[in-house]
Amino acid sequence: MIETLQDFVASLPAALQGLGIALIAAIPFVESYFGATIGVVLGLPPAVAITAAVLGNVISMLVVVLGAHRARTRIVAGREPVEASPRRQKLRRAFDRYGVAGVSLVGQTILPSQITSAAMVSFGASRNAVIMWQVISILLWGVVCGVIASLGVSVIG
Q: Sign of dihedral through CA atoms 110, 137, 29, 144?
């Protein structure tokens, strides 16, 4: 899959490769970290690759968070709370233990930002807190992976 994404971005004219990175970074499991890495490996300046990857990932996360918030608002309006399944209770305990910041920063090692952000909103977390911490996390992961890729490319040469 990564090779296909690299081929897609490489096939674009140089002026549109940043947009290609933003598009692939919007895909769950590609995110800002793989998007930035792919951009750097393809020869884009690290600042361009990282910025494009972060923007693409943030935009897709915003769409999911706002949609999940809207759906949750409609679903819970006028309904009685139902007993959560054991699995959902386990997820909720982890969320309660680590909070929005912890789940946002570490959650991307397990699940895409789109999925973790939707889950947090479904648990009733503040939409704005989820957005803020997800943006911080996406930016942090994109910069770290982009810098590591840049250092790796410069060493390999």
A: negative
Letter for the amino acid at 134?
A: Q
Degrees to nearest 5, angle at CA 13 with 21 and 32: 5
Q: How far, in Å, are 41, 43, 108, 126, 149 from residue 154 at the CA level?
A: 10, 11, 26, 42, 9
Per residue of the chain (157 residues), give pLDDT as tens.
Answer: 778 988 899 999 999 999 999 999 999 999 999 999 999 999 999 999 999 999 999 999 999 999 999 988 888 777 776 777 786 677 678 788 889 999 899 888 888 899 889 888 988 889 999 999 999 999 999 999 999 999 999 898 7
- Count the residues in the chain: 157
Entry pTM: 0.86
Count of other CB atoms within 10 angstroms of residue 148 = 14
One-letter amino acid for residue 72 of the chain:
R
Helix (H, G, I), strand (E, B) or coil at 51: helix
Amino acid at the residue 155: V
Tell me the chain's radius of gyration from C-alpha atoms.
17
- From CA 54, how far away is CA 56, in angstroms rounded? 6
